[in-house]
Amino acid sequence: MFDMHRFGIIVWNNGKVSIENCDISCNLIAGIEVKNGSSISVLNCKICDGRGTGILISEHSTGMIVHSDIFANSYAAIEIKQDSKCLVQASQLHDNKTAGLIVAEQGQAKVENSDIFANAHIGIEVRPQGSVAIYNSRIHDNTYQGILLHSGGYGTVDGRDLMITK
Q: Counting C-beta atoms within 10 Å of the first and last residue's C-beta, which end of the chain has fewer, N or C?
């Protein structure tokens, strides 16, 4: 899916979608948007060069992102908010213009065995009422912070095999 007018894929109103082995690039708003109680499974995909967020999960939705490469988006690789949940596993989030991962507004993220690096600002940003659990991941070479935890944000970090640098 290349150069769609607004979104590469949008899932809404309790939709359930599984996508595998895809390339989604050059979208105006988001490569993938999941909202209104929907769920998505993304496996072995490349999501890049969007003018917004790579993957946006909001409004009580769920996501599972596995073995995917999300990079060079104008906002974050992944944003989770509004009481949504997402598992990011064995994926790379890099070279995005703000953050690799943003979690906000009662959003919850679990990051396992992933590599988050070279983002223009922050590797992982946890805003008020957001929470993240990070296991066996590398967060490195981001311009400002590896992890930014705002007041009112929550985080758990498993130190085994974890590398965090700026």
A: C
